[in-house]
Design goal:
This protein has 188 residues and is an alpha/beta fold. It contains seven helices and five strands.
Length: 188
Amino acid sequence: MKSQKVVITGGPSTGKTVIIQQLESFGYYCFHEIVRTMTLEAKQKGNPESFVSNPLAFVKDPYEFNQRILSGRIDQHSKSVNINNPYVFFDRGIPDVLAYMDYFNQSYTPDFEEACSTRRYDKVLILPPWEEIYVADNERLESFEEAIEIHEHLKNTYLRYDYDPVLIPTGTVKERITCVLNALKENF
């Protein structure tokens, strides 16, 4: 059985991680976000007194940081081929790297775009900005206003790569999981 690759994306603090954790508790295979750990490591190596929204402020080489994120997401995508589960969920996908680089006005080489074009997902679910649950923390550095802008970059990047992202509305975790599973049933 070929697993369907499903990306759950959205700006910061939209509930992605909680949804991924819940899906995992139901027995679905989920790849977790890799950026939070990388941001914390970079922040600890940099100046922890400097609170800015761009995690790249903590790294010596922003391009290399993004290349590591891209490599990690490519690795997740490659590993998903060997998973025997009807759906494999990803907390962010490869195009998220480009969306964030566009948001921070960073250039990228064709290999970033090629990864988005050649390593495809079957479905993209996007969570909207949700001010009521928005929380900044040590690894989530963006303001809510920045989260709204990032959401637009994410949506536009997935559209640019010919995806049709399905918006998962705000609500309880149970309601959102129901929307996620219903979105999958409608299209597979």
